[in-house]
Design a protein that fits this description.
With 182 residues, the chain is mainly alpha-helical. 58% of the residues lie in helices and 4% in strands. It has a single domain, classed as Up-down Bundle (Four Helix Bundle (Hemerythrin (Met), subunit A)), CATH 1.20.120.450. A two-stranded antiparallel ribbon has the order 1-2.
Length: 182
């Protein structure tokens, strides 16, 4: 076992793991966005499905609300307009969409990266409900992974054969495993 891992508390291991998992999710989103035009990001297969751009706007709003002053204020900030996260007054540019994505992630990763293992059991409030900081981090991980998965699926549907896989390509598992063992 790695000496550094052996010397960490379970709380330190958890925080390192959370940052790693969040970073991996962000990278999946980054690799998705780079394949898309602004038209692709604004596309929706039907009126009940949010576009990738709206999903990003919602994630940003959620991340800023949850991870600003997390230990001292309700994670559902009074200034947040959740319903407005699912609308654009004017169509955004690709750069504007990516800026929303980056702003949300910067807030989340900075906040989670600043917590200590001793703070994980501290109570936080989200929508007037008290939970441990650790549970809030888990709750956010679930929320983000849900929406990043939606983004990937929408991109795959939109791009079809132009989609470049983000993981092991079909039929390539054995080769991938063999290369990983080398």
């Amino acid at each position: 076992m790695d000496q550094q891992i052996e010397n960490q508390t379970i709380g330190e291991l958890y925080l390192d793991s959370a940052i790693h998992r969040y970073t991996t999710m962000k990278q999946l989103g980054d690799k998705t966005l780079v394949q898309l035009s602004v038209e692709d990001m604004l596309w929706s297969p039907n009126s009940e499905c949010n576009s990738i751009a709206l999903t990003i706007k919602h994630l940003r709003g959620n991340m800023l609300s949850r991870w600003t002053d997390t230990l001292t204020t309700d994670g559902e900030k009074s200034y947040r307009n959740r319903d407005g996260e699912f609308l654009f007054d004017t169509p955004p540019t690709k750069d504007e969409i990516v800026a929303l994505w980056e702003e949300g992630w910067e807030c989340l990763l900075t906040a989670v990266g600043s917590f200590t293992a001793d703070e994980l059991a501290k109570p936080i409030i989200i929508r007037s409900q008290e939970l441990a900081l650790l549970d809030g981090i888990n709750r956010q991980m679930f929320h983000v992974s849900y929406h990043v998965g939606q983004m990937v699926q929408l991109a795959k549907e939109r791009l079809g054969e132009r989609w470049q896989t983000l993981s092991i390509a079909r039929g390539q598992s054995e080769q991938y495993i063999a290369n990983a063992r080398d």
